[in-house]
Amino acid sequence: HDVDGNNLSTADGHVTVITVATRQNETNARAVADQVPDRCLGDPKYRYVTLVNFQRKLARPFHALTQGIIRRRLDAEAKELKPRYDAKHLSRDPRKDVYVVADFDGSAVTELGLAPESNEVAVFVFSGAGKLVGHWIGIPGGDALAKAISQAETSS
Questions:
Q1: Where are the chain's structural domains?
Q2: Residues 34, 36, 39, 40: what is their CA dihedral angle, to the nearest 10 degrees?
Q3: Is pLDDT at 15 greater than 80 in this prediction?
Q4: How far is CA 56 from the centre of its chain?
């Protein structure tokens, strides 16, 4: 589930890009998002998910507070995206297109084959059928991410 309570799946028909980051390197998630082709922006066939790996370091009493802070940041990010949506004549609410999963217990990163203690940025691209078509440790170089997204569009 993301911080808004949405149940997300990599096999629900969306081309999904997941960027795993920690609080220390979360700016890298923005750098990865900037590599996503503009044609994907606001298109409901695509989903960009930031998975924040809290490395099992945040005490349970702070989970709800942290999710609230993340939601407020997403509200602000959606406001930043609105002019780009308007320029593309998109009537969709950009807030419905930004997803963050707060992984407090390490279960989500473990599902992706990463260690909860990891401090690395990792990027995954899945086809709509849930097939992994691209995976990087670190920020993908050049047009590698765009190529993987194109491959995911045609992969089943």
A1: 15-46+54-139
A2: -110
A3: yes
A4: 19
